[in-house]
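User: Hey, quick favor. My workstation is busy. Could you predict this chain's structure for me?
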Amino acid sequence: MLRLTKKMQDSIFLVVCLVVSSTLAESTQKSDINDIGMDRNTTNDLLVDDTLQKPNTGRSTILGGNALWKSPVPYVLDKSLDLNTKGVILRAFDQFRVKSCIDFKPRDTEEYYLSFKNLAGCWSYVGRVDPNGQNVSISADCGYIGEVEHMILHALGFHHEELRYDRDDYVQIDFDNVLAGKENDFSKVGKNLSSTHDVPYDYLSVMHSGKNALTNGNGSTIITKDPKFQDVIGQRMEMSSHDAEELNLLYKCNSTIASMFFCDFSNGMMCQMSEISSCAQSDKKWEVVTQVSRGPSSDHTSLPAGNKDNGQETGYFIHASTASGQKGDSAWLETQIMTTKRECKVQCLQFYYFHSGNELDELNIWIREFQDEHDTKGTLRLMGQITGLPTSHWKLHHVSLNATKNFQVVFEVQKGAGNSAGGFSIDDINLSETECPHVTLQIDNLERLLSISNIGTAIYSPRQYSKEGYAYRIVIGLYQTFLGMYVEILSGDNDDQLKWPCLQKQATFQMLDQTPNMKMQMSKQWSEVTQETHKLSNGISAWANPRKNGSIVFHENDEAVYGGIIFGYKYFAFLEELQTREFVKGGSAIFMFSFEDVTPLVNGNSLPCPQVRPMNITARSRNWDEGPCFLTG
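Assistant: No problem, here it is.
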């Protein structure tokens, strides 16, 4: 039986002290850190033999016919899987939905379905070959999103990238360094059995094995013809854009399940968005521009990043000025009408904004929802608002939407009281039928902070609340050549109503690849589930009520806030990683976090649809139920 094995370090318990950043609220007492401690950089220790072959199927790649699945692909999550792996599999499904036309559904009575199990090791068959439950083995050691995507792509019909018939133009296999008896695992798949679909050879493919795959210890087995990719092959962050492209070509489709809209204004156009003249109470307009005198000086799309220089092409974004006019003057812009397709009626709007106006100016985000085909006016609902102090960098912003029918997204900039020299700018808009991250923490000038900060300096997010009401915050630890990412359970408003300890919650830590189109992003993320086995040295659960078992970490509104341990990854990202992809863009890095109750997966195959929480409006410069837009809606 051919399998993938992977060297993993054991979890360790590490206690260190953090030096609190002077730019943030200072804790009155430092917290302990529970470092998960797993080395999940699999580039150098991935093995090739993670695929099983049915009798008489040889090593052919999938060319079509009965070996392809019909979307949505039915699946079952077996009880042999640990809870964290189950949650990661569902997150991997969402990546396929965002990037491809392949969807997944819990199995009903289908004869062919994927059965995800822990069968000792990580492996998959290639293509649809086995009725009555085709096994995909995901052990705990490979229960992270890149490896899960790798195994699913095998099941959907993919072999490893280095087995392409044209691989000799891009890599050399050093058979002197291959384990004895494993030479056939590097056999190319011939032209008569496979197709590249004219997709370029992809060193970044999640299907490419690492440089030391199946090594006998005498050196690397895969040598890239282009040396700069030697330490790149074998990445397991996410599927690449070429992986997604080839998947859609294999399944003869050109759409995606969950991506609804993208615009980076790169052609100087508004992506078929249009002004709403009936809503404007003045002559204010949205304009496509290349810069604004008070900022920004360029668009977000073309900002310099780790893997690219500042482009020579002119970059565009949209801007609505608040420098002139009267309080209440507004500019409105709406997207085309979009249709929801997924059963869960939740959407995530993501965009970058730059605020160069007055702190009382507003950027309001609405949806206009249409009841049926006869409703031509629709009904507006306010879903998000940005106001406050101007920014010095482009800022990422998420807005959770819950449209159940056809809808439009509407952007409104409204002038507030006071003088303004700028306005609001927007760039790189993505809209998808997925849930938004629960927390976003953007750190500007990150590389400089890493170089000048004391080792162990911590940057904290504001206090957050989970869907169930648990309070927590995100922590980024700076260690000069690497950074850590953690979560800390805090005391909150609902502690006496909650179940303690806080168990079976999946914490997902993510560093965002800021490539403008989310379908082309390759972000880094790890997940871990809060468990009863996470104990402090005194035997108390690490997830116990911090009000009873923690210590005061800061004060908020004259209230003492208690914190427990800080739990996460000390070695979350190294400086070398930050300088790849678009993890640091224009000097800024973005960290995202989700805290999901995965209890339904103990005996089930899916999670309930997420619910959009009521919006907290901090500024109300007018009666929201009045105005020309509402007279038409």
